[in-house]
């Protein structure tokens, strides 16, 4: 075995220590394994990589036959990554501050931020999914805020960005819900909670609050909005991270791109709600705002039911009690689609060379990995990470993994590609043709927890991935039915 080589390297504001067994060399302040040795078929190698610090994990691999790895097209090892900051052990978490900004009359944007003292660090903006808000990114704000300047916002019509006044005039005094009045207030005339409104809202936050281009990440609906902003304003975006992004939103035609077709629909989410829509909204809202229904939905979207969702649950319940929540929900449901479809936004991003990274929970019942693999097919060079077990909200279910990947991806882009992508630290040369598999282990509340993580190469077959997804689904169904 070659001599043990140990180098201590400092990267920007993220110091770490690396210990590597194998023949290594130090080049331009980066520890790079000897690729001529790595690529030799049939050679057995022992890898033991330890990385300490906020950004990096540890790779622990047993002796492995590299020839067999290349035949299988998949490499395997274990990666030990840091957990979330544990203040009980003396680890300091980034402090979160909450604020708001009036964008337009009576339209106030709530946002949370952390790490504002990291003046030279990149800016990161998180966009929430439908029905939640900035509170869903608490684990990113407290952790990533130690190294970056981090923001998370609430979309208008959701979270704490609901209106502070009734958008309609009321003739009687017995109206329970805002937005059910006789006519719209002047400030709410033509107000619709739509994709186009949210895209404009995020543009405002980036330009007027953050004041510089950002790394933008979005879960579900937030992923669509993040991609939409990057497609129409690429100069404001340094990179997009899609977390189980929904590729569809809005059931009705957009009046700009389909003016004739849109006129066939008499109501498009404006205020006040028409009488028939009010009755329908009351019936639906009574069901979906019930705490038992909310708990059931969370049970669906979180694969690991040991995840503590008490805070998320209580905040969602609190939001549903706002007098504007029901009418805002109706406006969102009947709002037209965006001027750009998800596919069109993706094509524009590809044309403008927007950096995109994909992080998907494999067990998502709503936006399964097949949608992430379709994006990967359109943008082969976009890193695509798949996490299991994880559902629709991987950033909250496995925040340790998502934060680890976010740090690594941002470092990769900030270094101009000099820093390797997460899972590529040991220098696989043929990963483009295959996928890399790792078992990720991390501490959580005094326990060790582990998940599986895959990185798909740029030339990995889309149809092979589809076949694997169907096969995995079949196995899960079969196991549930087995005695």
From TrEMBL:
What's one GO MF term for it?
pheophytinase activity
* Gene Ontology biological process terms from the UniProt entry: chlorophyll catabolic process
A Pfam family this chain is assigned to: Abhydrolase_6
Q: Give every AB hydrolase-1 domain span.
A: 124-402
Q: Which SUPFAM superfamilies match?
A: alpha/beta-Hydrolases (SSF53474)
What cellular component terms from Gene Ontology apply here? chloroplast
Q: What is this protein called?
A: AB hydrolase-1 domain-containing protein
């Amino acid at each position: 075995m070659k001599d043990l080589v140990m180098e201590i390297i400092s990267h920007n504001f993220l110091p770490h220590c690396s210990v590597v067994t194998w023949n290594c060399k130090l080049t331009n302040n980066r520890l790079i394994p000897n690729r001529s040795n790595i690529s030799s078929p049939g050679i057995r190698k022992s890898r033991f990589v330890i990385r300490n610090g906020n950004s990096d994990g540890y790779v622990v691999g047993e002796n492995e036959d590299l020839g067999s790895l290349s035949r299988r097209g998949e490499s395997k090892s274990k990666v030990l990554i840091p957990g979330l900051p544990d203040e009980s052990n003396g680890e300091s978490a980034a402090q979160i501050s909450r604020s708001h900004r009036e964008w337009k009359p009576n339209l106030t944007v709530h946002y949370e931020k952390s790490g504002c003292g990291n003046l030279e660090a990149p800016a990161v903006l998180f966009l929430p999914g439908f029905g939640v808000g900035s509170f869903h990114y608490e684990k990113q704000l407290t952790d990533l805020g130690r190294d970056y300047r981090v923001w998370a916002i609430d979309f208008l019509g959701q979270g704490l960005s609901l209106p502070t006044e009734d958008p309609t005039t009321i003739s009687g005094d017995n109206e329970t819900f805002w937005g059910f009045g006789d006519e719209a207030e002047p400030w709410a005339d033509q107000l619709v909670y739509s994709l186009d409104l949210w895209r404009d809202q995020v543009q405002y936050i980036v330009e007027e609050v953050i004041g510089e281009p950002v790394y933008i990440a979005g879960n579900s609906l937030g992923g669509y909005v993040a991609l939409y902003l990057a497609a129409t304003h690429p100069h404001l975006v340094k990179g997009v991270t899609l977390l189980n992004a929904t590729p569809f939103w809005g059931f009705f035609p957009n009046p700009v791109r389909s003016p004739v077709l849109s006129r066939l629909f008499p109501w498009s989410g404006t205020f006040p709600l028409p009488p028939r829509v009010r009755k329908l909204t009351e019936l639906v809202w009574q069901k979906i705002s019930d705490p038992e229904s909310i708990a059931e939905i969370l049970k669906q979207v979180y694969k690991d039911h040991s995840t503590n969702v008490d805070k998320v649950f209580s905040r969602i319940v609190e939001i549903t009690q706002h007098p504007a929540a029901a009418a805002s929900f109706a406006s969102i449901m009947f709002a037209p689609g965006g001027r750009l479809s998800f596919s069109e936004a993706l094509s524009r991003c590809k044309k403008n060379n927007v950096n995109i990274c994909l992080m998907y929970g494999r067990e998502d019942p709503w936006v399964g990995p097949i949608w992430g693999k379709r994006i990967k097919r359109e943008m082969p060079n976009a890193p695509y990470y798949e996490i299991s077990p994880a559902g629709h909200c991987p950033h909250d279910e496995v925040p340790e993994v998502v934060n680890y990947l976010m740090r690594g991806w941002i470092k990769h882009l900030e270094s101009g590609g000099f820093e390797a992508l997460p899972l590529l630290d040991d220098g696989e040369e043929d990963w483009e043709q295959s996928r890399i598999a790792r078992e990720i282990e991390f501490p959580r509340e005094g326990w060790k927890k582990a998940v599986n993580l895959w990185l798909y190469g740029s030339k990995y077959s889309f149809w092979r991935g589809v076949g694997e997804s169907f096969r995995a689904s079949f196995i899960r169904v079969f196991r549930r039915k087995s005695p």
